[in-house]
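Revision sheet: structure tokens.
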Amino acid sequence: MTDVTGNLQQLKRIGVKFIDFTGGEPLLHPQLPDMLILAKQLGFYTSVTTNCLLYDDRANELHGLVDLLHFSLDSLNPDVHNGLRGRSTFDSVMTSIATAQALGETPDLLFTVTPENIDSIDRLSEFAAEQRLMLIVNPIFKYCGQPELTMGMLERLDRYARKPYIYINAALHKLIRAGGNNTQYPRCYAVSSSVVISPDNCVLVPCFHRAATRLPIRGNLQHILESAEYKQQQQMQGKHDFCAHCTINCYFDPSFQYRLDSYLILSILSKAKYGFDKYIRRRLA
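Predicted:
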């Protein structure tokens, strides 16, 4: 907890606003509530994504500490969902939705779309509307050999973009159609937009998925972020050979804010719909 405390304090000093506690499965960490309490005390917005196996047991500990609570739900067919997750988590997700809503939480449903479960979009969109919960539609990206979506599948998802309680990042879809990140004219700002810290307290650059360099923090995170080595990593973001054709949403989503172009406009419009559905439509329903 000492490392987490020091890192959060230094991140606050340099102007970071948002902290995402992710994994793996973040609810496996016994001190997650303590980390969230500290983050909220420092004024951060917080996010946690969970497969829900432990949420029902820990819901009271987390209550009121997570601004964006995400439950992974890949199908309303238990066999499809459990098959994709590799574990029997479907029943836990359904129980967790009820538990969270009873506590006044409004979890988002994170739907990772693959060729195997794209047919689940119909029932999931209806379920999200019934529950008045946001369905975040997140196309799978190329990593560890997973099959990507075809352009026809992407067009099918686009037809749901205007439906209530559906969040589709139009900027990401545009990037996918363009073939992903272009290393000659990169749209990725992963190093500038995100500070990725590993469980063993190292800064990973340029990102978690392509961690070419590990920088041990040793109590001085701010020094690392101001170092010549880190600034060189910023100069190279999106330009590495392994950055070619990348579409990893968790890095492009914040990257879209770094340049005035059509990606920025589409990203803002998509987030405006998300905000309206989650915070206004839900209250008016």
